[in-house]
Write a structure and sequence with these properties.
By secondary structure, the chain is an alpha+beta fold. The protein has four helices and six strands, in the order αββαββαββα. The termini are far apart.
Length: 144
């Protein structure tokens, strides 16, 4: 039941803040709510590959994911990993990593279930995260 409450609260908050229309619904069923920023909106969100939200039924770990760029040149892998390590040491909220598909990604995990889930806090994290991740994106792009 609490999963449906989290889903409902997030959708309601996104609608109230006018942000729901900016997202495509990728999955909305009994196991997961997954939203992704629409392609046209991504151009105005500092041109990320993807910005997505995941609210899983099986966990209280709700996430906001920012796919920043794709590493095309494996020769630069070590430099990218060193920079991401530095960003991880500097941030308590956002964690940066390189996926097995070479996507440079940032993730915010919002722990909330039952009455502890606050849709407005989640949306604030989403927006703050866009600003924070965009500010480090230029450092990443300089290496690429």
């Amino acid at each position: 039941m609490e999963f449906y409450r989290r889903k409902s609260l997030l959708k309601k908050t996104l609608k109230e803040t006018g942000l729901f229309a900016a997202f495509d619904v990728l999955q909305d069923d009994t196991k997961m709510l997954r939203l992704s920023l629409k392609p046209a909106v991504k151009m105005f969100a500092w041109d990320f590959y993807e910005v997505s939200i995941s609210i899983p039924k099986s966990s209280c770990y709700n996430s906001i994911n920012y796919v920043i760029a794709k590493l095309e040149d494996n020769k630069k892998r070590d430099d990218v990993l060193k920079l991401l390590h530095k960003f991880n040491n500097d941030s308590l909220v956002i964690k940066y990593f390189l996926t097995s598909q070479n996507f440079i990604t940032a993730k915010i995990t919002y722990i909330g279930s039952g009455n502890n889930f606050n849709g407005y806090e989640f949306v604030d994290l989403l927006q703050d995260g866009l600003g924070i991740v965009s500010s480090v994106k230029s450092d990443i792009m300089d290496i690429l």
